[in-house]
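User: I'll paste a sequence; please echo it back and then give the predicted structure.

Assistant: Echoing your sequence first, then the prediction.
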Amino acid sequence: MVKAPILGLRCIKGLAFIGAWVYAQRQCPVDKTFLRIPSSFSGLVFRSYPEDHSEDTLWVPVVVHVIESYANEIPSERVGAQLRALNRDFAPARIQFYLPRYGPSGEPTCGLTRTVSPLSSHDWSTEEDTLKNLIYWAPDSFLNIWVVRSMPMQVIGYARALNDPQAKAGIVLVAGVLGEGEGVRPPYDRGRTAVHEMGHVFSLYHPFEGGCRGMTPQTCAIEGDEICDTPPQRQATYGCPRTPPNTCQETPIDLPDPIHNFMGYVDDSCMTHFTPEQIARMRAFLRFHGSTLISQANQLARGRTTPFDHVCTELMGISTPFIAPPKLKRKGNTLFVEGAEELKVYDVAGRLLHQTRGDEICIDALPFGLYYLQVFKTGYPFTYTIAPF
């Protein structure tokens, strides 16, 4: 294990080089000053917002800008894999991401752009604004993710929160940690660099923000990470230890460090969850500072419910022919496609969950989340994005 130097401002955990990998401890020294969470939304303030009892899914359109040194350097499938990883880990928060079908001017898109530029080797210390100004889509309509080939000093990702007054919101990732599975090497191979950074975009800090701060019920909401159900940590934990350490002694109940939290530094395989209070904070922050981004009007403009075309479905890993799709009708959680010969439901990882012969299927039994409905009509498959009510 090669230890990375601790930097002042960016997220670090390992870097892919051509032909070899150099591993480093996960480091992401993003702090309260860097994220610049608006003062109107921090500490106890988000608890003053109406409690969110809704089961509504908050839909976030993401556009991925691949900055590469030559055309098609980074496979498109990695973008689809990253989207599935984000939706898998944010499903309990009832936050889901989709690639828009229409771009800034209403043009057809899959939510993926490619730009050949020397900035594919991105110096984060001097080129953040230069990179983001190279290509970005309006942040009130899209959440931008930039992917570059490399960054110096083993930096592989960093984030800016929504409504940051100093820089454009979004995430910058090194291609070596984009997606999961093929092309991504352990221990950072499950797409959780982007999950971690997206937590920052939605106002979350690290559990060890400020060290052993927020040690009592009176201070946990205004010190440290401002989250009371993540016990404070003196410092980050690395790797994937079998037994969580306990680096702070809070009162009245002392708990071990929350090492399996998505906002920590452990390996991807050891990260498992956001806490209920983290989820509540993200949803409140997104509703307030991303209200236009997640609005029904923006969903319509971005074509969230528009069926995938053949290019986009190939990106998502489910192939569809380029012909007019049949109309999907819905009554509650019963889906109906006139003339369909077979219906199949897949989860975001591409696993077949349910299939039926005929033109009707009920999805009442599906847990909350994002799914794909594949419809076979006259021998051709069509794919729709669905979610149970």
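Residues 84 and 348 are 5 Å apart (CA to CA). The chain has a mean pLDDT of 83.
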